[in-house]
Amino acid sequence: MTCTGAACPGAALLRIGSKPMANRQASLPAPTAHTAIPRTRSSRHSPGLDLGVLTSSLGYLLRRLQLAYKKQFLREAGSSQLQPRYVGAMYVIGLNPGVTPSQMSAALGLDDVHTTLLLNALEERGLVVRRPSTTDGRSRVVHLTPAGRPSPP
């Protein structure tokens, strides 16, 4: 049985604003014979499971890409303390020693609460340190610690 549109179970979950995500086609290169992705059946994880419009949903494809990235990242990171969510912040801090948390928030598109939680986690792991600013006593600046800096090749 195939369902379409709002009649599908979970169709409301595939909506962004007033347009259903199912109507938003992903801009991917056309599949070739050896890289074709089945449109309605998933042979990799659950043979015979009907995924319907999910296989052409940009949100679904981005989520699958994010999960694949995280899996690969964790494989390469091994037993290090680094998590994928810390990478952007570590780069910003490393390239901009003395950056303020509000500057980081703006650069990474995070709100103040998430930036504080992120910095707390990095500080607990000994990867960053927050110090009072030398130019503004009300502000704090962030620096990488030696443990947070990349090791030489």
Detail the topology: elements first, then pairings:
Elements: E1 15-16, E2 19-20, E3 41-42, E4 49-50, H1 58-77, H2 84-95, H3 101-108, H4 112-124, E5 128-132, E6 140-144
Antiparallel strand pairs: 1-2, 3-4, 5-6
Describe the protein's architecture and organization.
The chain is 35% helix and 12% strand. It is built from four helices and six strands. A two-stranded antiparallel sheet has the order 1-2. Strands 3-4 form a two-stranded antiparallel sheet. A two-stranded antiparallel ribbon has the order 5-6. Helix 3 crosses helix 4 (112-124). It has helices at 58-77, 84-95, 101-108, 112-124; strands at residues 15-16, 19-20, 41-42, 49-50, 128-132, 140-144. The chain is elongated. The protein has 153 residues and is of the alpha+beta class. The N and C termini lie far apart (56 Å). Residues 1-43 have low confidence and may be disordered. The chain has a domain at 85-146: Orthogonal Bundle (Arc Repressor Mutant, subunit A), CATH 1.10.10.
